[in-house]
Amino acid sequence: MSRDQRIFDLIQRMRDGKLRTAAELAQAVGVSTRTIWRDMAMMAATGIPVEGERGLGYILRSPLVLPPLMLTAEELEALMDGLARVGSDDSAQAKAARALRFKITTLLPQAGLIPNPEDLG
C-alpha cells in the first residue's frame, strides 16, 4: 500500500471523531506503530486537523469534506453498477474499482442513497 493510500485510509478511519491509538491504527492498515507516529506528525504538519500524542491516541478534530459532486440518483446507480461489474474479479483494475466504490460510499451522506458498503457486494 502506498503512503498516500495509507494516509487516505487513516483519515477515513478517523472521520468518526473517536480517539484511536497508534496500535489500533497500525493494525488496521498493516504497518508499525512507529509508522503511524510518523504519518500523524506529517498529517499535522500539512494542515490535516489531527491531534494527539504517543501513548494517548489520535483524533481528527474537524471533519474533512470534499466539495460536493452533484449526481442524480440514476447517475450514482449507473456509476456504482459499472464499478461493481468491473470489480468482480481479482485483477488490478477490479481492485481499483472496489477501492473507488468504497471511497464513493464514504462520501455519501449518512442518509445517502446506498445504506452501507456491505450492500455493495
Automatic annotation (TrEMBL):
Gene3D superfamilies: Winged helix-like DNA-binding domain superfamily/Winged helix DNA-binding domain. Coiled coil: none annotated. Pfam families: HTH_11. Residues 6-59 form the Helix-turn-helix type domain. It comes from the Bacteria. InterPro entries: CBASS_pafABC_assoc_protein, HTH_11, WH-like_DNA-bd_sf, WH_DNA-bd_sf. This is HTH domain-containing protein. It comes from Pseudorhodobacter turbinis.
